[in-house]
Design goal:
Strand content: 15-25%
Helix content: 25-40%
Number of helices: 12
CATH superfamily of the largest domain: P-loop containing nucleotide triphosphate hydrolases
Radius of gyration: 21 Å
Largest sheet: 9 strands, mixed
Bound molecules: adenosine-5'-diphosphate, magnesium ion
CATH class of the largest domain: Alpha Beta
CATH architecture of the largest domain: 3-Layer(aba) Sandwich
Number of domains: 2
Number of strands: 14
Length: 348
């Protein structure tokens, strides 16, 4: 008798063709069932490619039949209809056609404010740029759009001849923010539909040009507002930023749950404010340490890396010159660059 758990473990051994990640963590397995020596598996792909489907079918059958007590394996695969000629080949990620020119859209989420989500978004964007990628950064935090300040941008976007918004460029990263649409010190009163509409325009009516990555700084939290934003933006993956303390409180699980609800693959967890090195060299673990890594293991998702508390990180944010830009070879900058390398690997 094979348990669902055993079947899923076997399926975790099957990677998506061309990626180093398995089909379970990509969220492609819709159901598994066992009955009298026969296992049936249902996959739902976002690509219409027949080669991908055939290769996955064969691999899944082999993986499942290797379980003791399984004689028959049947694999059902749901796929969208074949795309029109000339459409880009789709990976395991969804909705790429909605944002022409943008290869990967990645959301950065957190359980609550103040854990360093925007700091990580800004520095990861600059780190990916440092590594040679073309990067955009979209600040969707309606409660506190802090990214223009952190990137040192005051001017508002221009409008092109094609009536598109032209994102200002800071440190080589193209930037769009809810903050550009607000007067200084104006209280933020956004109604749900207004937010959705604005965010849709940010994707479709902004002249992003060609981008390898568009990072999206979500509002803090994992409630309905964040969930609808995740549905509005055609996301290819989500990253969760946490402090060690927050991770141990199960907050990360809520973030993962949010992405799963909208079928967005979870790329991994970043632990921010991991520890602090005192002037005498002692390592001080203010919020505990390792919670992010432990939670990532528990949730079977990638641990992307840790960022210690550094005065330079806060100063970089306040001065509009992120630490990755000011001093890429120093430890604070290196922490972000290592995480960006991980991300790049996972995104293929
Ligand atoms: N690793 C860190 N070291 C030092 N200061 C940090 C670090 N991460 C964030 N901060 C500071 O903490 C504050 C909150 O960070 P922020 O990125 O605005 O959080 P969030 O977007 O989650 O609300 C900012 O002043 C920021 O400069
Ligand atoms: Mg923020």
């Amino acid at each position: 008798m094979a348990s669902d758990e055993q079947i899923l473990t076997a399926l975790k051994g099957v990677n998506y063709p061309g990626y180093s990640r398995d089909i379970v963590s990509f969220g492609l397995v819709k159901s598994v069932a066992f009955n009298n020596g026969a296992v049936s598996v249902e996959l739902e792909l976002t690509t219409a490619s027949r080669e991908v489907a055939q290769s996955l079918k064969a691999e899944v059958e082999a993986a499942v039949k290797a379980i003791a007590g399984v004689n028959i394996a049947s694999v059902q695969i749901k796929q969208p209809a074949a795309p029109a000629a000339g459409a880009a080949a789709a990976g395991p990620f969804q909705n790429q056609q909605k944002a022409p020119g943008i290869k990967r859209i990645v959301a950065i989420a957190s359980g609550k404010g103040g854990v360093g989500k925007s700091t990580c978004s800004v520095n990861l964007a600059c780190a990916l740029q440092f590594l040679g990628a073309r990067v955009g950064l979209l600040d969707c935090d309606i409660y506190g759009p802090s990214i223009p300040l952190m990137m040192g941008i005051k001017q508002r976007p221009n409008v092109s001849e094609q009536d598109k918004l032209v994102p200002p460029n800071a440190h080589g990263v193209k930037l769009m923010s809810m903050g550009f649409l607000l007067e200084d010190d104006q209280p933020v009163i956004w109604r749900g539909p207004m937010i959705m509409k604005t965010v849709q325009q940010f994707i479709q009516q902004v002249d992003w040009g060609e981008l390898d990555y568009l990072l999206v700084d979500l509002p803090p939290g994992t409630g309905d507002a964040q969930l609808s934003l995740c549905q509005t933006v055609p996301l290819d993956g989500g990253v969760i930023v946490t402090t060690p303390q927050e991770a141990s409180l199960g907050v990360v699980r809520k973030g993962i749950g949010m992405f799963e609800k909208v079928n967005v693959p979870i790329l991994g967890i970043v632990e921010n404010m991991s520890y602090f090195t005192a002037p005498n060299g002692d390592r001080v673990e203010i919020f505990g340490h390792g919670g992010g890594r432990q939670e990532a293991e528990r949730q079977k998702t990638a641990f992307l890396g840790e960022v210690p508390l550094f005065m330079e990180i806060r100063e970089g944010g306040d001065s509009g010159e992120p630490v990755v830009v000011r001093a890429p070879s120093d430890p604070p900058g290196q922490a972000f660059i290592k995480i960006a390398e991980q991300l790049r690997k996972i995104l293929g």
